[in-house]
Amino acid sequence: MVEVDDLASNLKSSKSDLLVLQILLDTDTTIAAKCGLDEDEFSNIQLAVHDTEDAFKEFVEIVGGAQDALDCERINGIFVDLGHEAICGSASSTLLWIYCTMSIVFALGMFIILLRGALLPPVPISGAYGNVHSYDQEDALSEPK
C-alpha cells in the first residue's frame, strides 16, 4: 500500500507542477519571444501542457479510486461478511440437508433389505459342510460314531 501512496503523492505533485506551468504559459506572453517560437508553436505547447495536466488529473482520480478499493476496512468487511455467511448461515442448513439425505438413504436401504427378505424365498445353504440346519432328529440324538 506504501507504493500506491507514493504514486498518488508523485502524481499530485506532478499535476500541481503542470498546473503552475499552464498558468505561467497562459499569463506570460514573453516566453514565446524568449524561446523564439511563433504563435502556432506556442499554442501547440500550451495545448499539450493542458492535455497532460488533464491526463494527470485523471490518473490522480484513478489512483484515488484504487486506494479506496484496496482499503483495509473494505476488504476486511468483505471477509467478515463471507465468513459469517459461510459459518452461521450456510453451514447449518448444509448440515441439515446432509443429515436428511443420509437418513433417507439409510431408510430406503433398510426398506430394500426388508423387501428382499420378505419377497424372495429362502435359499438353502449348501457347500462343503452340507446343509447345517437340516439334520434329522435321529442323527442329533444318536451316539457319535
Please, could you describe this protein's structure?
The chain is mainly alpha-helical and 145 residues long. The protein is rod-shaped. It contains five helices and no strands. It has a domain of 69 residues. 80% of the residues lie in helices and 0% in strands.
What's the SSE pattern?
HHHHH
Structural class: mainly alpha
Oligomer description = single chain
Major sheet: none
Rg (C-alpha, Å): 44 Å
Shape: rod-shaped
User: For the terminal residues, how far apart are their CA atoms?
Assistant: 96 Å
Helix content: over 70%
Overall pLDDT metric: 77
Low-pLDDT stretches? none
Instruction: Please give the count of helices.
Output: 5
Q: Beta-strand percentage?
A: under 5%
What is the number of E strands?
0
What is the topology?
Elements: H1 2-27, H2 30-35, H3 39-69, H4 72-119, H5 137-141
Helix pairs in contact: 1-3
Short summary of the structure?
The chain has 145 residues and is mainly α. 80% of the residues lie in helices and 0% in strands.
Descriptive tags:
rod-shaped, about 140 residues
